[in-house]
Amino acid sequence: MGKISAIDPAALNGAIQKMDTGANTLAGACRSLTAEFGRYGLDTSGLRKLDAIAAWTRDQLPDLRRRHALAVAANRAHPNDTLAHIAEPFSLGAADHALYEQAVAAGDRASVALVTSDLRAHLDDPEFLQAYADAAPDDVTAFQGLPADVADRLNRLRLKADVEKPGCPQELKDLWAHLTDPADRTHRSDMFLLGYDALGNGHVAVSYGNPDTAANTAVYVPGTGSALAKASGDLNRALTLYASANDTGAAGTTASIYWLGYDAPGWSFPGPASQSFADAGAPKLAAFVNSLAPQHTGADHVTVIGHSYGTTVVGDAFAHAGMKADDAVFVGSPGVTVDRASQLGLDPGHVWASKAKFDPVPEVSATLDPLKWLDDHSDRFGNDPTSSSFGGRTFDSGEGSGVTHAHSEYWDPGPSLTNMTDIVIGRPDRVTAMPQEDRTGVLPNLADQVDPVLGIPNLLGPALQNLGHRVGGYWGAPIEDSGDALHSFGQAENDVAGTVTDLLTGDLDSAGHEIEDIGSDLADSGENAVRAVTDFFT
């Protein structure tokens, strides 16, 4: 095809549609007539020539579509120009990027397939890949939705260029080492860099295993304080789950993704007390998770796991951003932006939550609604997802080593990792539920500060829980069990007050759950009291 000095995008689009329709009509007619002519022994050479013309016409369409995409992109930059001017000869990589971006927005699967085919054919062509990468925005989502191996190649191209620049930040060098250095503890040969940018604190999406072919895929979303400079620890969590899931002997492979595609809150005010970070991150997470399905081959089971503030982002994405996945997992949550599992757009039987007994984060994440200050099951961003009033399922995470470290131990060997693994690989029947006593936590809630007389059991209980846990051994067990008994009794007191509040505000559903919790907490208090005595005499 010769050079074109200027393009009218609308006119060219019309011509493409007519050529496509005409070529398909002509080819169909030629096939039909050739069969008829052949049946009667007539000469079909003329029909074969017409069919060749139809084929030639179709062969011109990919090039015309690329030129049209470039013209549309040029017109966006100069909206007042009727004609678009594109450089000749045009860059195939740049044209493919423009075509892909427009095709995805328009739902044009044929053009998406054309670009994907081009990219695969040019994976060893650095000039083509560089042109494609240069045309894409500098954003973690730049190659989102492309096949994992293609996105990996393009993102590594960008990261390598950044690493080679003078004054490259250490976190980028570390990320490059994670991806390329066999001696690095988080390196594996089957890592895929699905997204990357160095904007702000940096953003990244890394998969262990290929999500396009894996039978199971887990997406892990970290919480407060997460940044590219701290990626090593979060990568290790994704790697730990990857190894655990693939060592079970379950059919099919599991891919484990670390996703930091949002700006996580820092520890300075308002930090994790603000929902704005989740509201901004939820649409990005939803877009990423939803982009995995179109490239996947075969059946897939997707689980999205949130930790700490990451649970708030995950819940927001399910409830308000249209994220589609099979299971949701929340650990150490300050709330997930809704009060009921049914509000997440998932079957509540596929909504899982856990908190270690000594994890302080769910306990200190107090709601700002004074009407809920007497409710032990209200967190900062909605009902505690481990509470019965939330309506999902729980899994055991153990106690944790203490309030200082329990919040960070969910990926350590133990019941939490085992249960998350079973959820990810689709074995919910093997998941062990969270003990009722662990749902009360080990810190007094806000209600106990408002009415310390009513809250004496819940103030003294956590103190004994923590003391017993620290002492350990013969004396520690009965002390901790005594604290459990007192704390559970205090929870029952608060449940009574919460029931009254729910009835006064007309929330009959919550009142019903509170009444159920009163019975559970009293029963748990009695069991722990018996255990305290038994421990003392054994």
From TrEMBL:
InterPro entries: AB_hydrolase_fold, DUF1023. Pfam families: Abhydrolase_8. Residues 198-368 form the DUF1023 domain. Keywords: Hydrolase. One of its GO terms (molecular function) is hydrolase activity. Gene3D superfamilies: alpha/beta hydrolase. This is Alpha/beta hydrolase. It comes from Actinacidiphila yanglinensis. The lineage of its organism: Bacteria, Bacillati, Actinomycetota, Actinomycetes, Kitasatosporales.
